[in-house]
Amino acid sequence: PKLTATPSSFMSGLNSKTAYISFAEFHGSAFSQLKTALEYMKNAGKTKLILDLRNNGGGSMSVLCDIASLFIEKPNSLIACARYKDGSTKEYRTRGDNFFNMEKTIVLANGNTASASECLIGAMKHYGGAFNANNLVIEKSAQGVAKTYGKGVMQTTYSRWPEKDAIKVTTAIVYQPNNTTINGVGFIATENCAAETGAGLEKAISLLA
Predict the structure, then answer these.
(1) Contact between residue 120 and residue 53 where contact means Cβ atoms under 8 Å apart
(2) By three-state DSSP, how is residue 197 classified?
(3) C-alpha–C-alpha distance, residues 123 and 177, integer Å
(4) 79, 98, 97: which is closest to 36 by C-alpha?
(5) Can you tell me the distance from the alpha carbon of 39 to that of 45, in angstroms, rounded to the nearest whole number?
(6) Is the N-terminal amide bond of 162 cis, ω within 30° of 0?
(7) CB neighbours of 191 closer than 8 A, spacing ≥ 6?
(8) What pLDDT, in 10s, does the model give residues 148-197?
(9) Strand order through the sheet with 89-93
């Protein structure tokens, strides 16, 4: 998942109770790495978190279920529901009891924050606690719009043999726990949480001051 520590240029801006984690993708050992980072953070006396999801385009929904359990208190909480064209549905829920109780969590996002990342943001907003809509900092695009990508669909890849090529087909729309979809819409920053490109971390730090 390419977890990174706080950039040295911003170290002076963070207070002693705040940690910064950059999270790049929902794949592989992302859950265990993020859990280890949070454990290290808590053992170091950190009670506030800046979770950087800028340019995180998503990944595995299975990994998402584990990741979400770190930020949502109640086990088996609904994270997302995929509704397929044939009328069937599939629910994605938190797995395990892995909740880390934060005093405050700020999430950083931009126009490349998509799919599983948006599902995580939606679930965290829905269940509340340390995170809410006023804690979502989104950097503006070149057009001056502060919103996430807005990918709320699932695709299935069909391979052709012997042609050795493949085609991706949209097979389901993903809904948030509140029964809405961000597909084509994304999350839009509140007035106080929109940041200029590259200035999101500074904005997040200011909200923790």
Answers:
(1) yes
(2) coil
(3) 6
(4) 98
(5) 10
(6) yes
(7) none
(8) 999 999 987 777 667 778 777 788 999 999 999 999 999 999 999 999 99
(9) 89-93, 78-84, 165-175, 153-160
Q: Torsion angle, CA of 68/73/74/80, rounded to 10 degrees? A: -30
Rounded-to-integer distance, Cα 146 and Cα 200, Å: 11
Q: What is the pTM of this model?
A: 0.91
Q: What is the CA radius of gyration of the chain?
A: 17
User: Cα(23)–Cα(26) distance, rounded to whole angstroms?
Assistant: 8
- Record the tokens describing residue 104, joined without a space: 């405050």
Which of 178, 200, 112 has the alpha carbon at shortest distance from 150?
Answer: 112
Q: 31, 34, 100: which is closest to 60 by C-alpha?
A: 31
